[in-house]
Amino acid sequence: MGFRHNNILFNNHFHKDWQRRVKVWFDQPGQKKRRRNVRSAKAAALGMRPVQPLRPAVRAPTLRYNTKLRAGRGFTLEELKAAGIRKKEARSIGIPVDHRRKNKSEESLKLNTDRLKAYKERIVVLPRRTKQNKGKQPDLSSVQTIRTTIDAFPIPAGTTPEGPRAITSEEKEVDAFRTLRMARANHRAEGQRQARQAKKDEEAAQAKK
């Protein structure tokens, strides 16, 4: 069965044996129960530690999504410094560190610093087992166990929508289109203005000589 010259290609659909190749999802409830058991076993193995670490609140990229806040990868070094937490200490108490992310606004720095300070106030660090405290159990009767940090420290809303209000007389007098155009023109011509001013200053300095 060869293919030669400019002829039609064969389209031979042989017996596909559908009963052997079909895929069903009858194990979906069982897989759901298995995942739940794995999560329960992980929580039991961690003891009093939270199942999930504390995550920073970051802006999603691109203009379409940057009005929303979501959980990020880790806290920046500047945020840890503002909260008074060392980098190695942060990793030991369940705070991930992302050395690549940078703070580009005071708002994001303050928001994540406040999250770190609130987490630091509620966290209870147990002492390491040594020969001196071997066999001694700390009193944890008044400690409230937090299984998920998302419930205790939720990600805030990205923006607060402003309610409807009447337009003031000052806002009616402002020409928004002209204001934006003038700001754009001033920004584009700033370099030329500085160059002309520098040239005038140089000529004035030479004329004084």
UniProtKB/TrEMBL annotation:
Keywords: Ribonucleoprotein, Ribosomal protein. Residues 187-209 have a biased composition (Basic and acidic residues). One of its GO terms (biological process) is translation. GO terms for cellular component: cytosolic large ribosomal subunit. Gene3D superfamilies: 1.20.5.110. Residues 185-209 are annotated as: Disordered. InterPro entries: Ribosomal_eL13 (IPR001380), Ribosomal_eL13_CS (IPR018256). The keyword Ribosomal protein applies. GO terms for molecular function: RNA binding; structural constituent of ribosome. Belongs to the eukaryotic ribosomal protein eL13 family. HAMAP family: Ribosomal_eL13 (MF_00499). This is 60S ribosomal protein L13.
